TrEMBL record, chain A:
<dbReference type="InterPro" id="IPR024569">
    <property type="entry name" value="LutB_C"/>
</dbReference>
<dbReference type="InterPro" id="IPR009051">
    <property type="entry name" value="Helical_ferredxn"/>
</dbReference>
<dbReference type="Pfam" id="PF11870">
    <property type="entry name" value="LutB_C"/>
</dbReference>
<keyword id="KW-0249">Electron transport</keyword>
<dbReference type="Pfam" id="PF13183">
    <property type="entry name" value="Fer4_8"/>
</dbReference>
<keyword id="KW-0813">Transport</keyword>
<dbReference type="InterPro" id="IPR004452">
    <property type="entry name" value="LutB/LldF"/>
</dbReference>
<feature type="domain" description="Lactate utilization protein B C-terminal">
    <location>
        <begin position="402"/>
        <end position="474"/>
    </location>
</feature>
<dbReference type="Pfam" id="PF02589">
    <property type="entry name" value="LUD_dom"/>
</dbReference>
UniProtKB/TrEMBL annotation, chain B:
<feature type="domain" description="LUD">
    <location>
        <begin position="96"/>
        <end position="192"/>
    </location>
</feature>
<dbReference type="InterPro" id="IPR003741">
    <property type="entry name" value="LUD_dom"/>
</dbReference>
<dbReference type="InterPro" id="IPR037171">
    <property type="entry name" value="NagB/RpiA_transferase-like"/>
</dbReference>
<dbReference type="Pfam" id="PF02589">
    <property type="entry name" value="LUD_dom"/>
</dbReference>
<protein>
    <submittedName>
        <fullName>LUD domain-containing protein</fullName>
    </submittedName>
</protein>
<dbReference type="InterPro" id="IPR024185">
    <property type="entry name" value="FTHF_cligase-like_sf"/>
</dbReference>
Length: 475, 196
C-alpha cells in the first residue's frame, strides 16, 4: 500500500518551540514557587482585564461582531484551498513572490535562503508568533545571520536571554525594575542613569534601535491577516517598530500561517474591531499597516510571502479541534485564565501558552508530545466567554483529553467501575466493601498504588455510614 | 510534488468530510451613521493626540513647532504649505528624520476609535514621511470623518499602502499599561480644517 502524500502531518520534532522540556504539572510547580512572577502576572492580567472590559462595554454590538468573526473563521476553514490560491494569485499580481512551506524546517530554509540572496547578514524582525513557532532566529543564527527583535517586549526577552511567556506581551513576567536591570546589563550604550519609569525605558529602546532600523536592508514579519480577495496583508502593532520594518528595508519577508487568510477586504471591518479591544484593551491599536504586494517608490521593493503549514493541516483534519485555528492571537484567554495567571506562560512549554495554547500546541505536535496540556485547565469557561471569535476552548480541551494517552490502570479501573455499576447486587456489595476499606484505615488518605496518582491531589470521599439502598430497605 | 501541491493536498484531505458552512451574520452596526466630530476629538485626546481646529494651516503649524521646519509631501495643497517646509522630492531617510515635524493630509478618520488613516496619496506622501520625524501634524477635512470602522473600510482602497494611526506611538509591553513614545512619532497633532 502506498502512503498518500497529501495526508496532513504534525509539526516535526527537533525544530521550533512547540514542545516543552517537561510536562505542564512539573513546570507549573517551579513557576508557582516564584512569588515575583505571580505578583507580576497578577498585576498585568488584572490591568488588562479592566481595560479590555471597559472598551468592550462601549460597543453595543460586541456579541454580533463576535458571531460574525466566528462565522467568518468557519467559512475560511471550509474554503481554505480556494482562498489560499486566490491570495497567492493577488499577491503575485501585485509584485510579490509567494512561497509554500510544509513545515518549520522548510520555512526556515526559505527565509534563510532569501536573506542570503540579498547578501545581508542582519535582519530586523517584527514580533511574530509564526517565526517564534518555527525557531527562525536560531536557524538564522546558524546561518550566520543576526536577527534583531524590534518589539519592546521581544527585545526585553532577547536581551535577557529569556523565553517569551505571553502571546501579546512576551515579557509580561518581567516588571519595570527587572526590565531596567536587563537594559543596564545588556543594552550597548545605555545611559547608566536610566530609571525604571516605563516612558524612560521605552525611550531607551527607541535610541538603541533607531540606527539599526535605518541601516538594515531586510525585514522579517508575521501577518495578522491576509486578504484573499485583494492580496492585502495587515500587521497590527503599537510601537511603530512594525512600520519601520515594513517601510524602511529593501526586502520584506512575511511568514504567515495558512489559517490567517481572510476571505474579503470587507471582512477586516469585523476583525479590526474585535482584535484591539480583546487584545490590548484599546479602541484601536496605535498603528496598523496594510500593503498589497509592492508599491513603486514606497516601502520595500522586494516582497516575499511564506505560507506555513507546520501541523496546521493536522489541526484542520479534526472536526472539533479545527476551531483552534480560528484564533486571532489576541491573548484575551490568557488574561482571564486562573491557571495562566498563576503559572505564567513558560510552564506551557510552547510559544502558544494559556488556554489557546493548551488546545493548539497538542494538535500541532500530535497529542503524545503535549499530552499534559489539555489538563492545564479547570474547565471554568472564562476563556470561551472572553474569546472574540467564540472558540469553545473547554469543549476542545475535553475532546483532546479523550485522545490523550491514558494509563492502563486508569482504563482498568474505569472498566471495572462500569462493570460494577451495570450490576446492582455487585454495586451494593462494593459500597459495603468501600465502607470496610475505610474502617481498615484508609480514611481521607491516598489510594494504594497503582491508583495513588489519582489521589495525589484529591482527598478520598468519606463513605457514609449507611448507603441509600440500605437506608431505604430499613425504612 | 511541490510544497504548494503538498500543502494544498493536505488541506483538501483534511476537509474531506464536508462540514456545514455558515452564512456570515452581518447584523453588527455597519452604518452609515451620523458623524460626531466632538466624539472624534474626545477619542483622539484620550489617546494623547493634540487636536486643533483651524482654517490657517501655516499659522497652526507655526504654533506647534515655532521656528522649526517640516517635511511635506509633494501634493500638499499650496495654501497649507508652511513657510519653512521642505517638499519630499526623494529625500533620504536621514534628511526626513532631521525634520522638526511632518505635515500631511489624511484619507479617512474614524470618530468612534479616534483613528486617522493615511493612504499614501500625493497629499500624504510616502509612508516613511509620517514615520521618522518625531512630530506628525495631520490635517483632516471634516468630510473625511466617518462614524465607525466598517464605514472607513468601505471608503479605503486596499490597493494603496495604508497606515491606520490611533494616537502617538505607544506600547503596552511594560506591565500592560499604555506608555506613549516608542519608535513612531511621539507627538501627534490632528488639525480639523475649517474652510475659511
Amino acid at each position: 500500500m502506498s502512503t498518500f502524500l497529501g495526508m496532513p502531518v504534525h509539526a516535526p520534532r527537533g525544530v521550533g518551540h512547540l514542545r516543552g522540556d517537561e510536562p505542564f504539572p512539573a513546570a507549573a510547580r517551579t513557576a508557582l514557587a516564584n512569588p515575583q512572577l505571580r505578583s507580576n502576572l497578577r498585576h498585568a492580567t488584572t490591568t488588562i482585564r479592566g481595560k479590555s472590559g471597559r472598551v468592550i462595554a462601549e460597543l453595543p454590538d460586541w456579541q454580533e461582531l463576535r458571531s460574525a468573526g466566528s462565522a467568518l473563521k468557519t467559512y475560511t476553514m471550509a474554503n481554505m484551498p480556494r482562498l489560499l490560491e486566490q491570495l497567492e494569485e493577488k499577491v503575485t499580481a501585485a509584485g510579490g513572490v509567494v512561497h509554500w512551506a510544509a513545515d518549520a524546517e522548510e520555512a526556515n530554509r526559505i527565509v534563510t535562503g532569501l536573506i542570503q540572496e540579498t547578501g545581508e547578514r542582519r535582519a530586523i524582525k517584527i514580533k511574530s508568533m509564526a517565526t517564534q513557532e518555527i525557531g527562525l532566529n536560531e536557524a538564522l543564527e546558524e546561518a550566520g545571520i543576526e536577527a534583531v527583535e524590534t518589539d519592546l517586549a521581544e527585545l526585553i526577552v532577547q536581551l535577557g536571554r529569556d523565553k517569551p511567556s505571553h502571546i501579546l506581551v512576551p515579557a509580561i513576567h518581567r516588571n519595570r525594575a527587572e526590565i531596567r536591570e536587563i537594559f543596564l546589563r545588556e543594552m550597548p550604550g545605555v545611559d547608566p542613569a536610566l530609571t525604571d519609569d516605563p516612558a524612560e525605558l521605552a525611550g531607551a529602546a527607541r535610541r538603541y534601535l533607531r540606527e539599526t532600523f535605518l541601516s538594515t536592508k531586510v525585514a522579517v514579519s508575521g501577518a495578522n491577516f491576509g486578504v484573499a480577495e485583494t492580496g492585502t496583508l495587515a500587521v497590527v502593532e503599537s510601537e511603530g517598530n512594525g512600520r519601520m520594518c515594513l517601510t524602511l528595508p529593501e526586502t520584506l519577508i512575511t511568514v504567515m500561517g495558512i489559517e490567517k487568510v481572510v476571505p474579503a477586504w470587507q471582512d477586516l471591518e469585523v476583525f479590526l474591531q474585535l482584535l484591539p479591544r480583546a487584545s490590548t484593551g484599546e479602541r484601536m491599536n496605535p498603528y496598523t499597516s496594510m500593503w498589497t504586494g509592492v508599491t513603486p517608490g514606497d516601502g520595500p521593493q522586494n516582497f516575499h510571502l511564506v505560507l506555513l503549514d507546520n501541523g496546521r493541516t493536522a489541526v484542520l483534519a479534526d472536526e472539533v479541534g479545527r476551531a483552534a485555528l480560528h484564533c486571532i492571537r489576541c491573548s484575551a484567554c490568557l488574561n482571564v485564565c486562573p491557571v495562566y495567571e498563576r503559572t505564567g506562560g513558560h510552564a506551557y512549554g510552547s510559544v502558544y501558552p494559556g488556554p489557546i495554547g493548551a488546545v493548539l500546541s497538542p494538535q500541532l505536535t500530535g497529542i503524545a508530545d503535549n499530552a499534559s496540556l489539555p489538563y492545564a485547565s479547570s474547565l471554568c469557561g472564562a476563556c470561551f466567554d472572553a474569546c472574540p471569535v467564540k472558540i469553545d476552548i473547554p469543549s476542545i480541551l475535553v475532546h483532546l483529553r479523550n485522545q490523550a494517552p491514558h494509563p492502563r490502570t486508569e482504563k482498568a479501573a474505569m472498566a471495572a467501575a462500569a462493570y460494577t455499576m451495570d450490576r446492582p447486587r455487585l454495586y451494593q456489595r462494593a459500597q459495603r466493601a468501600a465502607k470496610l476499606a475505610e474502617l481498615l484505615g484508609r480514611k481521607g488518605r491516598a489510594l494504594p498504588p497503582p491508583l495513588n496518582g489519582w489521589s495525589a491531589s484529591r482527598d478520598l470521599p468519606e463513605v457514609p455510614d449507611e448507603s441509600f439502598r440500605d437506608w431505604w430497605r430499613g425504612r | 510534488m511541490s510544497s504548494r501541491e503538498l500543502v494544498l493536498g493536505r488541506i483538501r484531505q483534511a476537509l474531506a468530510s464536508p462540514s456545514a458552512v455558515p452564512v456570515i451574520p452581518r447584523d453588527y452596526r455597519r452604518g452609515p451613521h451620523p458623524v460626531d466630530l466632538d466624539l472624534l476629538v474626545e477619542r483622539l485626546v484620550d489617546y494623547q493626540a493634540v487636536v486643533h481646529r483651524s482654517s490657517d494651516i501655516p499659522g497652526t503649524v507655526r504654533e506647534i513647532i515655532g521656528d522649526g521646519w517640516v517635511v511635506v509631501p509633494p501634493g500638499l495643497p499650496v495654501e497649507w504649505q508652511p513657510a519653512r517646509a521642505r517638499i519630499d522630492d526623494g529625500l533620504s531617510p536621514a534628511e526626513i528624520a532631521a525634520a522638526d515635524g511632518v505635515l500631511t493630509a489624511a484619507a479617512v478618520a474614524v470618530a468612534e476609535t479616534g483613528t486617522i488613516v493615511l493612504d499614501a496619496s500625493p497629499d500624504q506622501g510616502r509612508r516613511i514621511l509620517s514615520l521618522l520625524p518625531d512630530r506628525h501634524i495631520c490635517v483632516l477635512r471634516p468630510e473625511q470623518v466617518v462614524a465607525s470602522v466598517p464605514e472607513a473600510v468601505a471608503r479605503l482602497d486596499p490597493g494603496r499602502p495604508l497606515t491606520w494611526i490611533s494616537g502617538p506611538s505607544a506600547t503596552s509591553d511594560i506591565e500592560l499599561n499604555r506608555v506613549e513614545g516608542v519608535h513612531g512619532p511621539r507627538n501627534l497633532h490632528v488639525v480639523l480644517w475649517e474652510a475659511a
